[in-house]
Amino acid sequence: xxxRELILARVRRALAxxxxxDTPYERAVERGYLREHGRRTAEESADLLxxxxxxxxxxxxxxxxxxxxxxxxxxxxxxxxxxxxxPPGLPADWLSAVDATRVPDLATSxxxxxxxxxxxxxxxxxxxxxxxxxxxxxxxxxxxxxxTLVPDHHVVVVRVPEQVVASVPxxxxxxxxxxxxxxxxxxxxxxxxxxxxxxxxxxPRTLEVVLVSGH
Length: 215
Hints:
alpha/beta; Rossmann fold; 6-stranded parallel beta sheet; NagB/RpiA_transferase-like; LUD_dom; LUD domain-containing protein; FTHF_cligase-like_sf
């Protein structure tokens, strides 16, 4: 008898005298969770998102649709980025003012090759105001997960108000659980036992979020 079979046999013996429970799964546990904490306008939700992102040490910028190309160009120039990963579905005009080499998101790209790229610019699937979280789902305008984890600088564009929701439950309703979801709350960071914070350990050291309105 394998270890697995031994453990399962013990579980069955322990449950032998337990009464049968025919309660349907969806009624077994009360799940009357709050869908959001307080009522906010779309503008207030965007403000809360910006506040929480900044609290996580993300750099937050706000602009209109018309201002976006120039803003992205400025952010990459200030970073000194000479190369930028571009997902295949990223709107072409977003980077129309950028003076940097475009690196396509290829399945054949190695981690070493991506590590030599200065920045990556993506869109997102949804953003959560209450938690300051941006969610990527690998869509055409976001690219493969690794292109947002290896380069040291990630600029993500959030369309306001349509991509901003108040809470995690509202975000989950918009997402496909079968897709590769990446939940980002600030730049990658960790702390050792002395609580010394180190950024860039398992993702970008610098996260910049652009809240763009006027779509």
